[in-house]
Specification:
The chain is an alpha+beta fold. The protein folds into two domains: 2-109, no CATH class; 136-214, Ribonuclease H-like superfamily/Ribonuclease H (Nucleotidyltransferase, domain 5). The chain has eight helices and four strands. It has helices at residues 2-6, 25-31, 36-39, 56-66, 70-88, 96-114, 178-196, 208-214, and strands at 136-145, 150-159, 164-173, 201-204. A four-stranded mixed β-sheet has the order 3-2-1-4, with helices on one face. Strand 2 and strand 3 (164-173) form a beta hairpin. It is elongated, with a radius of gyration of 22 Å.
Length: 220
């Protein structure tokens, strides 16, 4: 909310739940009175007076130091954020006191489905594959820095021998969705190739939706 207020999308930066404080990520997930019940008593050590946390990154660090159940911690945070978004768009959501129960059930089901998979195939490290002779390969990606309410774009251009011909890293305002961020990264990669004066390139990104949209498989 605070970020959208700075961009003049919203009139108020205050939390949409309590309407008392600026809605930073840390406030929305941890400090707001309306989410206290979502955490239950499982993480009460993190609320001791000795703890001094000014950001959600500080909270995650403290949780890793003090609590072994980081899996549950991250699922709780994710479900609180999902609940916050549903509330914002007037969609049905779980009451705060039911959140922890739902998260525990979700993790239990996940682990039950994982039973019997002890002989999992090791995931092969994805290796960079060179383009055809005389071509360039452009790898692009986007990253979200939630605590800073910023996003980042990275681009690397290599020739068919794997030599880096150019690279860039830029911070931008947080876009509304990950797909939009990936699309912006793809666009920046194309512009970067123009700036380098290079032609005959193949572009490679992580988002299947964006890639299909660029090649025309998604008309919309």
């Amino acid at each position: 909310m605070a970020n959208l207020h700075r961009r003049k999308v919203l009139q108020s930066p205050l939390c949409s739940n309590c309407n008392k404080a600026r809605e930073t990520v840390h406030h929305a997930l941890w400090e707001c009175d309306h989410v206290l019940g979502c955490w239950g008593h499982r993480f009460k050590k993190l609320r001791s007076p000795e703890q001094s946390m000014g950001s959600f990154a500080d909270l995650v660090f403290s949780a890793r130091q003090q609590d072994k159940n980081m899996e549950l911690f991250m699922v709780v945070a994710w479900m609180i954020w999902t609940r916050r978004n549903k509330r914002h768009f007037n969609e049905q959501q779980l009451p705060p006191e039911k959140i922890l129960e739902a998260e525990t059930a979700l993790l239990t089901k996940f682990h039950e489905n994982s039973v019997g998979r002890s002989e999992r195939k090791l995931t092969q490290t994805q290796r960079w594959v060179p383009p055809a002779a005389g071509m360039y390969k452009v790898n692009y990606d986007g990253a979200c820095f939630v605590d800073e309410e910023k996003a980042g774009i990275g681009v690397v251009v290599r020739n068919d021998r794997g030599q880096v011909m150019g690279s860039l890293a830029e911070k931008i305002e947080m876009p509304p969705t990950v797909e939009v961020l990936e699309a912006m990264a793809a666009r920046r990669a194309m512009i970067f190739m123009e700036e380098l004066g290079l032609r005959h390139a193949v572009f490679e990104g992580d988002s299947e939706i964006v890639v299909k949209a660029l090649v025309g498989l998604y008309p919309d």
